[in-house]
Amino acid sequence: MSTDENAAEELLRGPEGLGRRDMPTSWTRRPGIEPTPDFLAMIDALRALQDDVTAAVPPPDVLVDTTKTLSELSERLRAYAAPERDQLTGRLITVPGRGQTMSPVLHLDEWSEHHARGHVTFGRFYLGGNGAVHGGAIPLLFDEILGRLANTGGRRPSRTAFLHVNYRSITPIGVELQIEGRFEREEGRKRFLTAELRHGDTLCADAEGLFVQLKPGQP
Ligand SMILES: CCCCC/C=C\C/C=C\C/C=C\C/C=C\CCCC(=O)SCCNC(=O)CCNC(=O)[C@H](O)C(C)(C)COP(=O)(O)OP(=O)(O)OC[C@H]1O[C@@H](n2cnc3c(N)ncnc32)[C@H](O)[C@@H]1OP(=O)(O)O
């Protein structure tokens, strides 16, 4: 089993795990709806498209053609729109990236209840300027790793209350970066976590997050 599958199993485990029946319905999926390799291939193609659109400066005829094709694709997929509960993107916790393209794909290499380590590459889509990742994309990644850690180990669901990010040096696009997160402590409903993002020996950014355990019925 891959580290991502282990992490997913951990998330869903036990009477207090995220598989509980009182989990908010928006985070659960109806049984029987599973991603197919074709669905995941579509998501990968969309990631590549995001990078290519970001970089491209096409001539007018290519632009017109591309826009027409994209509009046709949108219309085709819109016919298959499902309610949130049945949506696949973002819910595929056994798959690196969870089948969504909003944040870069987080690959988990090590996982425990209190610690996570992984790697990630920000594509051209996430460019802010001068080869550096956009400052808004970095918290997405921190929220992803800390959100998973905050809600693992049979802990009841929690939401991010704050996420403080320090940008220590630029975060380069197109290279593999290392990320590490830690569950620091718990005080009642409050869970404090920290994370660092590194390129080799260079600390790019670090973060502290507070996650607050949801009360029953809290959305
Ligand atoms: C729906 C559950 C989600 C769980 C999903 C988990 C796993 C799913 C599986 C896989 C997914 C994989 C990865 C997950 C990736 C990301 C998950 C990230 C989750 C999010 O990204 S989610 C979106 C952003 N998030 C929000 O949309 C929250 C909006 N907000 C609220 O929903 C409320 O605001 C809430 C609930 C946070 C608190 O509200 P509340 O009424 O329950 O509690 P209250 O205000 O009393 O605070 C209690 C104590 O926390 C202290 N406190 C509160 N806020 C503070 C702050 N900002 N600074 C300092 N202290 C703070 C108080 O001071 C008090 O402290 P004390 O007890 O010591 O006085």
Automatic annotation (TrEMBL):
<dbReference type="InterPro" id="IPR029069">
    <property type="entry name" value="HotDog_dom_sf"/>
</dbReference>
<feature type="compositionally biased region" description="Basic and acidic residues">
    <location>
        <begin position="10"/>
        <end position="23"/>
    </location>
</feature>
<comment type="similarity">
    <text>Belongs to the THEM4/THEM5 thioesterase family.</text>
</comment>
<feature type="domain" description="Thioesterase">
    <location>
        <begin position="130"/>
        <end position="202"/>
    </location>
</feature>
<dbReference type="GO" id="GO:0016787">
    <property type="term" value="F:hydrolase activity"/>
</dbReference>
<keyword id="KW-1003">Cell membrane</keyword>
<keyword id="KW-0472">Membrane</keyword>
<dbReference type="GO" id="GO:0016020">
    <property type="term" value="C:membrane"/>
</dbReference>
<keyword id="KW-0966">Cell projection</keyword>
<dbReference type="InterPro" id="IPR052365">
    <property type="entry name" value="THEM4/THEM5_acyl-CoA_thioest"/>
</dbReference>
<keyword id="KW-0443">Lipid metabolism</keyword>
<dbReference type="InterPro" id="IPR006683">
    <property type="entry name" value="Thioestr_dom"/>
</dbReference>
<dbReference type="Pfam" id="PF03061">
    <property type="entry name" value="4HBT"/>
</dbReference>
<keyword id="KW-0378">Hydrolase</keyword>
<dbReference type="GO" id="GO:0005737">
    <property type="term" value="C:cytoplasm"/>
</dbReference>
<protein>
    <recommendedName>
        <fullName>Acyl-coenzyme A thioesterase THEM4</fullName>
        <ecNumber>3.1.2.2</ecNumber>
    </recommendedName>
</protein>
<feature type="region of interest" description="Disordered">
    <location>
        <begin position="1"/>
        <end position="33"/>
    </location>
</feature>
<keyword id="KW-0809">Transit peptide</keyword>
<keyword id="KW-0053">Apoptosis</keyword>
<keyword id="KW-0963">Cytoplasm</keyword>
<keyword id="KW-0276">Fatty acid metabolism</keyword>
<dbReference type="GO" id="GO:0006631">
    <property type="term" value="P:fatty acid metabolic process"/>
</dbReference>
